[in-house]
Amino acid sequence: MIIEWVAGLYASSLMVLYRSQRNSLPFQSSTLDLSMSLRARWDGTFEVMRRISKAVSQAVARDSFPLVLSGNCNASAAVAADLTSTVPDLNFWCIDAHDDLDTPRIHENGYLDAMAASMMGGLSWETLMKFVPGHKPIDLEGGLWCGFRDVSEIQKKNIHEVGVDVVWGGPAMKGNYTTEIGAALDRRQFQRTHIHLDLDVLDDSLGRVNDWPSPGGLLASYLLGIMPMLPTKTTPTSLVVCSFNPRLEGGDTVARLAVKSIHLFIRGLVDQRILVASQ
User: Fold this and answer.
1) pLDDT tens-digit series, residues 2-13
2) What count of Cα atoms within 13 Å lies in the side-chain half-sphere of residue 11?
3) I need a labelling partner for 186 at 20 to 30 A (CA). Which of 33, 107, 200, 211 fits?
C-alpha cells in the first residue's frame, strides 16, 4: 500500500515539506485543477467535492491510503461519499474548532464550510450532494467530534439536538486532553474510521491557520500526542487535513507542525500494520 495525496488550494506547502522528510513509504500525488471561474461560483463547492470523491475512488482502487490536503472541511464529506460504498459502517473522527453541523435553517455567516458535517450526514443540501459520486448519508452517531471551542449559542443548541458525541475543547479541556480523547475512543470502539484534522483546532498563539482564528485551542504537544495515538485506537481509512492558508502570519510554524503530525500519524499506521509498503 502507498500513500496518495489529493491536494487542493493552500495545500502545496505541506506536500513540499513532507517530500523533504525521510519516509520509508512511497507516495503518489495529484493536484485538483481549481480554476478561478469554478471557485467564483457557489455551486463550485459541489463540483470540487465531486472531483475529490473521484480522486479518492481512484486511490482506493490502487490500494492506496487517501490523504487529502484541502482548503476547507467539505473534503471530508467528499471522502466519506466514496468510502461508504465499501465501508458502509464508516466511523468519523474529527478534531476542529468548529462543529460544521450548520444547516441553512440556522446558518449565519454564508460560508458553506460550516455545513460540511451536516452535508455528510444528510442534514443539508441533499439534492446537490446527489451529484457527489457514492454519497450516502452517514450516521452522525457513529462519529466523535473533538476540540470544539468557536461555536455560537445557536450552534451549541444544534449540536445537542443532532446528538453527536463531543469531547469539548477550549475552557472544557482538562489537564491531559490526549488521554481524554483516548478514553472516548476506547469507549466508542470504532472499527474503520475516517480522520478529519482541521488545523484551526490549534491555538492561535502558534500562528494564524486561516481567517477565523480563536484563542484557547490545542498546543503543539497535544496534537503531536493525539495523531500517533489514533491508529492504536481504530483503523483509519483516510485522512483529511484542511483549512490552512500558509500565507498568513505564522504559516511556516503551522506548516511544520502539520507535517510532523501527519508523519507521526503515518508512522503509527505502519507500526500497527494498517499501512504496508507495496512490494
Assistant:
1) 455 554 444 554
2) 25
3) 200
